[in-house]
């Protein structure tokens, strides 16, 4: 079944998110509604909505007298902590739900892996990051962790501000393929180890 067409807000939010992940906006820089509205050929409303969504996701921040600015990536200590929490969250959900995962969920995870392969082959950092997160989210949902997804997305958004697999797209896909193989065969220990090794 095909997905519903995206709204203007969803399209604009996706474009801006991709550019943030690809590093096309400098950390701390100010984003202006009028400039982006003109660039995308839309009114300021969808831009304002996109700013709100991306602020909630952790990519942007409202600052007094400065408007909307691009968040700075976490410092090394904070990133290490965020990475540790994300590993704990994903492995917790996996261990609780992998034994009961449905065949349909396995197929969804496999489709996300295929999307990641396409993005890696294209060398598109924004598409790789987006597909990477979609793969992990499909595991969270497939293993029954829907309630933890909003908090998990906040962690991921902070990590995505420094997302880079430059020169390592083949390795990125191989790591995710290893995760999928273990999940497909319901090997909890192997899947957990592969997840921990992949999340950096």
UniProtKB/TrEMBL annotation:
A GO molecular-function annotation: DNA-binding transcription factor activity
Domain HTH gntR-type: 6-73
Annotated keywords: DNA-binding, Transcription, Transcription regulation
Keyword presence, DNA damage: no
Entry superkingdom: Bacteria
Pfam families: FCD, GntR
CDD domains for this protein: WHTH_GntR (cd07377)
Protein name: HTH-type transcriptional repressor CsiR
Encoding gene per record: csiR
